[in-house]
Design goal:
The complex is a heterodimer of chains A (173) and B (716). Chain A is α+β, with helices and mostly antiparallel strands and 173 residues long. In chain A, 22% of the residues lie in helices and 24% in strands. In chain A, a hairpin with a 2-residue loop joins strand 2 and strand 3. Chain B is 31% helix and 17% strand. Classes of the chains: A alpha+beta (173), B alpha/beta (716). The interface between A and B is large, with 45 and 59 residues.
Chain lengths: 173, 716
């Protein structure tokens, strides 16, 4: 039973990278290690028009995480609430998960010589707080955390209200 | 306004064991965003947005979030220093505040006596909300010369809006404009004045139509209904073309035009000099698109123009601003709910009165550098930077002997950087107040440690036009750092201005607030104060202009001897104006597109922000890159008749193949030599500051559009 997800409204994202720094402030990942990051998609032609999007990438907290399967020391586990957690203490830095993750969402921390990924700020969630990147910090209001059904309701309203042409909600899965 | 309201302060305190939390007001850009600053063991431990702040509604940006890394940076200057070796030797010695300020005061008094107060030039950058105190000390001293970005940033909006409609019209985002025309601006990642990116995002998600005018495909341009990709620097022609459509298709607000405008007939004659065939030829934008955009903008109510600094750093600066105001006004959107409003500030001592402009003697006003040439600028106490460099280097029209730069890094931010550097090397005495030993500070005699926003009490957004003031509350003390306000208050006493200042600057804050009958201590307890909001005030009182009308034909400019009607002037250096030079320098170079995380020259030493952009990037169309043998990530030499710099190639099909886009304000604080790489990637090595290329009224330097050639860097 998936309880929590983090969803990105990519149509709304402006590429301001506030989420990256909000994550740094909370998780203190070292220089070069990003648990959430923004990439550029395009510009590319579609329907005779140039399009250009930003994509926000982080751990998808998969239903059946490939990374957990690949980890030889069981450092990655999925909680009942859906959050996939990497245990930094158990990780031996073999990098098997980096190769297993189809979303390039796991980084290697050269200082600690371990893998690092978004743990959905479970330390905040367990305190009744919202993950740092989703805690109403985004000036575009494009990061949503919570119950997938509830988020889908909000997004349906948002899609209806706005007037812009394309509409892509989640990253390419 | 939207469903986001998170930030649970009490639980954050509990979860992380913070000792205290201070509600304050960020100033990592021009300021504006309400924040909570959590403190642990006497240090800033976390910064979050304040959901109740009307400016940001809880959201923040990367800069605000990284403020603690700025405040506690190991390279930060935390005590005053004096230079003990030759200029640029980076040999510094710690001194006391008393020695620093006494030395500066002695120099000021000495130069004033020997060369007149005009030989002392104060300067600030984008305004660390210190403009009021800096003008105050300069005016009381008798110096008409305060060197700011005002000639080509915000100052023109203020000057042109005052002469057109009385004050700067600000978008009424809270009442949801239905059409937004974003012109030469990307407020989603930059630092426009007044509002930030959040309310724009909300307005778009609420269904606003979007028109974007930009030579680059920004994300808003990609999301827009209409993107007008104009030839850089032809904004005035494009606006005149749109106005031509609005006039000739009678899409304007007839009632507004008949009753509230001045100079309609002359204005119509002028726009008819810009038929769409001509405008297409000038701007590269197809006629149909111009017509489509003009119709959409005029037909959708309420509508607004989200403008910014790019249109001001051009030869058409003042006319660009006026033309965009005409688009707002003639479509009935001026002072309209959901349009662009002439907000009223709360009744405080405003920035102009605090600045003591009335205390500057007339004979000193007459000595304002460039005041006779750039008369609109001069009228608003703004000067063009080259006039200062000339006064230092050539002593014309009189010598400038002392510079005092307060949060300003002109070596990076002003055009023709090599000339700036020469002037700073030559000037007899220079004091700087800043966070770090910047390339500019390295040329100083004394450098003072400035406080960040986390270390000061102030009335945030005091100078803005959105009608709010918000308390910025001191959270921590770092080293011996002092706010520019406290520092100048102290210095003022040492140069005999004591009667006009206060024991501590809290007295100055009380003075600003006095007309409202409150003190700083009382304001500090409040969230914010907003001026009275009223729409269409002109119906009762007219506009605050000489004719009491919205001036299409400017009586002020006419009196100053300028064309009272806006016109398109060709870019000083372009395929059209300098075809021979274009053969040698075959690309149009545009500069200054913003990067999230940086604020002009700032933050390149802040780890979380530098990580967002390690190196300067120059955008080149893939076809152009292929022609020049340049690949993604290659170092590229960009060259203009003034010099050359290097930036890394980013292949980007979102610009015209004839155009190249370079970043601005790059230096390398991590390099410990005194120059910190100021001349390596600094795009202002390439820009020109000749007076002929500046806006004739505002003296705005054209730093945005010039000609260049590019080549792959080899053998470095």
């Amino acid at each position: 039973m998936q309880k929590y997800v983090l969803l990105i409204d990519h149509e709304a994202c402006w590429g301001c990278m506030t989420c990256e720094v909000a994550c740094k402030q909370e998780n203190k990942a070292p220089d070069g290690v990003k648990l959430i990051y923004v990439t550029e998609d395009g510009p590319k032609e579609s329907a005779g028009k140039l399009n250009f999007l930003y994509r926000v990438n982080n751990c998808r907290h998969c239903e059946n995480p490939f990374c957990a399967e690949a980890c030889p020391v069981e450092a990655i586990s999925k909680r009942d609430d859906g959050i996939v957690i990497m245990d930094n203490e158990t990780c031996t830095g073999c990098e098997a998960c980096l190769e297993a993750c189809p979303y390039h969402a796991i980084a290697f921390d050269k200082e600690l010589r371990i893998s690092r990924k978004c743990n959905l700020c479970y330390q905040r969630v367990d305190y009744g707080l919202i993950p740092a990147c989703a805690d109403n910090v985004c000036p575009a209001h494009c990061i949503y955390f919570g119950d997938p059904g509830e988020i889908e309701k909000v997004m349906a309203q948002k899609r209806k209200a706005r007037n812009t042409k394309s509409d892509c909600i989640t990253p390419e899965q | 306004m939207h469903g986001f309201q998170y930030a649970n302060v009490a639980r954050e305190m509990e979860a992380y064991g913070y000792d205290s939390v201070v509600k304050s007001h960020c100033r990592m850009c021009h300021g504006g965003c309400g924040v909570f600053v959590f403190v642990k063991d006497g240090k800033v431990a976390r910064i979050t947005g304040d959901p109740d702040c009307p400016i940001n509604h809880g959201t923040l940006c990367s800069k605000g979030l990284a403020s603690a890394q700025l405040a506690y940076h190991p390279d930060r200057l935390t005590y005053p220093v004096k230079r003990v070796g030759p200029k640029g030797s980076s040999k510094w010695e710690r001194i006391s505040w008393d020695e620093a300020l006494d030395t500066i005061a002695a120099r000021i008094l000495d130069y004033k006596e020997k060369y007149g107060a005009e030989s002392i030039v104060f300067g600030y950058g984008t305004g660390r909300e210190n403009e009021a105190v800096i003008y105050r000390i300069a005016n009381l001293l008798g110096s008409p010369n305060v060197l700011t970005a005002g000639h080509f940033c915000y100052g023109p909006r203020i000057a042109t809006s005052i002469i057109t409609c009385g004050t700067n019209p600000i978008i009424d985002y809270e009442n949801f404009p239905k059409c937004i025309m974003m012109w030469g601006n990307n407020m989603t990642i930059s630092n426009p004045d007044e509002y930030k990116g959040e309310p724009f995002s909300v307005a778009l998600d609420a269904g606003a139509k979007l028109i974007v005018v930009d030579p680059r495909l920004t994300r808003p341009a990609a999301r827009a209904h209409i993107w007008l990709q104009l030839r850089p620097g032809t904004d005035a022609a494009l606006a005149l073309g749109m106005l031509n459509v609005i006039v000739n298709e009678e899409l304007y607000d007839r009632e507004f035009v008949n009753n509230y405008t001045h100079g309609w007939d002359a204005f119509v004659k002028r726009v008819n000099e810009y038929p769409l065939e001509r405008v297409e030829e000038i701007t590269w934008v197809p006629q149909e698109k111009i017509r489509e955009a003009a119709r959409l903008f005029a037909a959708t109510k309420p509508a607004a123009v989200q403008w910014g600094v790019a249109i001001e750093q051009q030869i058409n600066c003042a006319d660009n601003d006026r033309l965009l105001m005409f688009l707002i006004g003639l479509t009935g959107n001026i002072d309209a709910r959901g349009g662009q409003v002439l907000y009223k500030t709360p009744p405080i001592v405003n920035v102009g009165r605090f600045g003591a402009h009335d205390k500057l003697p007339r004979e000193q006003v007459a000595k304002r550098l460039g005041g006779e040439r750039f008369r609109l600028a001069g009228h608003f106490a703004i000067i063009n930077p080259k006039t200062v460099w000339d006064a230092i280097l050539e002593e014309k029209p009189y010598p400038v002997k002392m510079l005092f730069f307060i949060s300003s890094n002109p070596v990076l931010t002003r055009a023709n950087a090599c000339e700036v550097y020469r002037a700073l090397e030559k000037v007899e005495f220079m004091a700087v107040s800043d966070f770090f030993l910047t390339p500019t500070a390295e040329l100083a005699d004394i450098v003072l440690p400035a406080a960040t926003w986390l270390e000061m009490d102030y009335i945030g957004d005091f100078w803005k036009r959105h009608g709010y003031i918000l308390p910025r509350r001191k959270v921590v003390q770092v080293g011996e750092c002092r706010s520019d306000h406290e520092m100048l208050n102290d210095l003022a006493h040492r140069i005999g201005q004591g009667e006009h200042w206060w024991d501590t600057f809290e007295g100055g804050l009380d003075y600003i607030l006095a007309p409202m009958g409150i003190t700083w201590q009382e304001f500090k307890q409040m969230d914010y104060i907003r001026g009275e909001v009223k729409y269409e005030k002109y119906r009762e009182k007219g506009f605050s202009t000489p004719t009491r009308k919205f001036e299409l034909y400017s009586t002020v400019l006419e009196k100053m001897g300028y064309d009272p009607l806006p016109q398109h002037r060709e870019v000083p250096e372009s395929p059209v104006s300098t075809p021979e030079l274009y053969r040698e320098y075959p690309y149009i170079l545009i500069t200054g597109a913003r990067q999230p995380g940086f604020f002009h020259t700032e933050n390149r030493q802040v780890p979380w922000l530098r990580e967002l952009h390690r190196e300067p990037r120059v955008e080149i169309h893939p076809e152009t890159a292929a022609k020049e043998g340049i690949k993604e990530g290659d170092w590229v030499i960009i060259e203009s008749p003034r010099g050359k710099v290097r930036q890394r190639a980013r292949l980007f099909s979102g610009i015209d193949p004839r155009v190249v886009a370079a970043q601005h304000a790059w230096w390398y604080p991590e390099r410990k030599d005194p120059g910190h790489g100021w001349d390596e990637s600094n795009i202002n090595i390439l820009t020109d500051n000749a007076y002929e290329g500046c806006d004739p009224a505002m003296g705005a330097t054209n730093v945005r559009t010039l000609l260049c050639r590019i080549r792959l860097e080899v053998g470095r």
